[in-house]
Amino acid sequence: MKRIGTEKTEVLDYTPTQLYVVEYLRHKYIAIDTQWKEQILIGQLPFRAIDKGIAGPGLLSQVYTDKYVDHIPLHRQCQRYARQKRDDTKLHNRRMSGKGCDLLDPLHEILKKDTLASDYLQVDESGILVLTKDKPESKVKGCMQIYHAVNKGLCFFLYTQTKEKENLIANLKT
Q1: What's the CA gap between 104 and 174, in Å, rounded?
Q2: Beta strand 154-160 with 139-149: parallel, antiparallel or unpaired?
Q3: Which is nearest to 120 in space by CA: 147, 145, 150?
Q4: CB-based burial label for 147 (10 Å; 0-12, 13-18, 19+)
């Protein structure tokens, strides 16, 4: 047979997120000095984003992207991870919330500084209802401020508890 051409077919596929465990093996040594005192030495662990936490940087990135970019609540993320049937590791939404957010503060401050340094800035503030933990179904009014540097293509959000112009003016002066 003589080939007369090639036909190409592409199929877009997906591999779902996978949880996996990274193990760090650290050897222990005992040091004996001349005075017969024993000292146990062990290698240091690498830096972890959350001290004594089980979440690695990849998992933290995925959790916060899902929550704040894709708006997937933590309890639904936990359900999704539970379907992977890792019986030795269970994620709970109470354990997933909060502790890693402070790692993003330096990034937020840089974004805020670069945005506010723009020569053309759009600002919008919208009142929002915020659930409180005081009593079931209790809500208070809050304010979400959006700062948009049009020429730079930058944007950041800032929450304040009240919709007073002093909050907006104070943020513009920083």
Answers
A1: 19
A2: antiparallel
A3: 150
A4: buried
Backbone angles phi, psi at 140, to 5 degrees: -130, 160
Q: Can you tell me which residue has the tokens 């007369």?
A: 4
Q: What does the pLDDT look like over 67-116, one tens digit per residue?
A: 888 989 888 988 888 887 666 666 776 666 666 777 888 988 999 999 99
Percent of the chain predicted with pLDDT > 90: 19
Phi, psi (rounded to 5 degrees) for 162 = -130, 160
Q: Dump the DSSP string for 118-138.
A: -SSEEEEEEEEEEE-SSSTT-
Q: What is the 3-class SS of 9-63, one letter each residue?
A: CCCCCCCCCCCCCCCCCCCEEEEECCCCCEEEEECCCCCCCCCCCCCCHHHHHHH
Residue whose entry in the numeric block shows the structure tokens 């919008």: 124
If one compares 162 and 26, the residue with the highest pLDDT of the two is: 26
